[in-house]
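Please fill in the sequence for the structure shown.

STRUCTURE ENCODING:
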C-alpha cells in the first residue's frame, strides 16, 4: 500500500545507508549527509513524500515535487512546460530487506499513475552515473536518457549525474 508520508520512521534512511556502506554504494549516498531526517520531514510538510508499506513496515519511499535542480536548466528536454506540470522524483528509496522484490518498480508505477491523475505532462529525475541498478529500473519503466550534468556534489566524489525524463 502506497500512501502519503504522514509519520515516517526514519529507520528507513539509516538502515539503507548502513547497508550501502557495507555493500556496493551505487547511489553514493552518505549517512548523515543524504538522505537525512530533514528530507523526510520536508516531504511530509510539503505533502510530497509517499511511502510503500508492507506488513506495517516501510518498504520504500519517493518524493514527488516540482523543484528541479539548477543543473536541469539548459537541458534539451522532451517537453518544455512549466514545472507546475512536471514531477521531479527525489529521494527514491527501497529498504534493503525489500530489494529485488518489486518495491522499486511499484514506486515507479505509482509515480507515473500519480502524475497522470494530477495532469502532469512529464516526470524528470537525476541519478548518479554509477547507480546502474537504478538506471536499469528507470529505463525499464520507460524513462529516456536526456543528458549528463554536474550537480555540484564533487566534494562527495559524485561528479556526474544522468538526467532522465518520461512523458506522461
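FILLED IN BY: designer on duty
SEQUENCE:
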Amino acid at each position: 500500500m502506497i500512501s502519503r508520508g504522514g509519520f515516517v520512521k526514519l529507520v528507513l534512511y539509516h538502515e539503507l545507508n548502513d547497508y550501502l556502506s557495507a555493500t556496493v554504494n551505487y547511489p553514493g549516498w552518505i549517512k548523515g549527509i543524504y538522505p537525512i531526517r530533514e528530507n523526510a520531514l520536508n516531504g511530509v510538510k510539503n505533502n510530497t513524500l509517499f511511502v510503500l508499506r508492507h506488513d506495517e513496515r516501510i518498504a520504500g519511499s519517493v518524493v514527488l515535487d516540482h523543484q528541479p535542480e539548477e543543473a536541469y536548466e539548459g537541458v534539451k528536454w522532451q517537453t518544455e512546460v512549466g514545472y507546475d506540470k512536471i514531477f521531479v522524483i527525489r529521494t527514491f528509496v527501497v529498504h534493503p530487506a525489500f530489494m529485488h522484490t518489486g518495491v522499486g518498480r511499484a514506486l515507479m508505477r505509482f509515480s507515473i499513475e500519480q502524475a497522470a491523475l494530477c495532469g502532469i505532462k512529464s516526470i524528470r529525475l537525476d541519478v548518479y552515473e554509477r547507480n546502474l541498478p537504478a538506471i536499469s529500473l528507470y529505463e525499464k519503466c520507460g524513462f529516456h536518457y536526456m543528458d549528463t550534468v554536474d550537480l555540484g556534489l564533487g566534494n562527495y566524489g559524485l561528479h556526474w549525474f544522468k538526467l532522465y525524463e518520461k512523458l506522461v
